[in-house]
Amino acid sequence: MEEGAERGSGRLAAEWERHRPAVFGVAYRLLGSVADAEDVTQDVWLRAAGADLERVTGLRAWLVTVAARRAYDILRSARARRETYVGPWLPEPLLTGPDAAEAVLVDESVSTAMLLVMEELSPPERVAFVLHDVFGVEYARIAGVLGGSVPAARQHASRARRRVAGARESAPRASRAERERVLAAFRAAYLAGDLAALVRLLHPDAVYLTDGGGEVAAARKPILGGERVAMVMLRVARRLPPPRIERVEAGGEAALLFLRQGRVFSLDTVAVGHGLITAYRRVLAPSKLARLSPVTSRPGVPSP
Hints:
By secondary structure, the chain is α+β, with helices and mostly antiparallel strands. Helices cover 53% and strands 15% of the residues. The chain has a 6-stranded mixed β-sheet with strand order 2-1-6-5-4-3.
């Protein structure tokens, strides 16, 4: 009996390793928080360990559905917390890097831009879109998560899909090469303190968002206009120790990790259009940077 139990436990652990990235991936897309996604992933593991999985049809779908149900509960309460959030909210950075083999962790739907679009959706729309369009979960399972009907789940996904499509049309995604070129030029201009060069890289209507979460000093409203953004950036930089800027990947896209005096200062992502930076987003909140380091290249997905 004990030998059979051990074999069953071994099979579960092997299956868990296969599906763990998807469990973490659905939670992160829904919550925009690595910390919360890790907690959800651990909850799902405990649920799986105590369940009779022999009767489960489609283990991957079952696991991501369990993760979505738990994340949905958190998401609904988080909406209330967002209303009192200090300053602009940005998702907690998810470092990926070139060795992140699991596409579920590096596709467009984990980019900062896409998570900000999904943040504007209602919780049911976000759940329906992520489960169906990203993970291919059938609507019957989604309806179970949302506590509604299959037609209602379809409608939630359809509304979300239209919003996402509209965002893609209004801000087409730049090529990887273009983003790399713009970020390299920005890094050089910033380190040189070259205001004119920074202004040339920023779109005249560029927006600068800083998320300090009320933990550190940060602008509580978006800063608008390329010239004003460049001036603010350099004015703040002159008051701080010189940075070391590392090129990293966050959400499958090129990003910049700022370090000052050996500590992570910020994680910056950009939106690029026609060779110019249209949006510059800087995460400063220490609680959102705690899992980052100069050598980190993978998200901290918990093991069983």
